[in-house]
Amino acid sequence: MVWTAALFFIVVPLVNSEDYCYDEPQCDPYAWGDMYPSCHPLLEELHSPINLDHQMTRNQSLEYLHLEGFDEIQTGHWTLKNNGHSVVMEVGGGMSVSGGGLPDVYHTIQLHFHWGGPASNGSEHTVDGRRYPMEMHIVNMKSIHPNLTAALDDPTGLAVLGFFIDVVYADNVHFGLISQKLSSVAYKGQTTKIKPFPLMNLLPKHNMSQYYRYYGSLTTPPCSQVVVWTLYEVPVYISWSQLAQFTSQIFSTEEDAEQVTPLQRNFRHIHSTFGRKVSVSKDAKLLAGAAGLPLSSALSLLQIILLGSFIISGL
Ligand SMILES: [Zn+2]
Question: Domain boundaries in the chain?
Answer without folding.
Answer: 5-284, 285-315
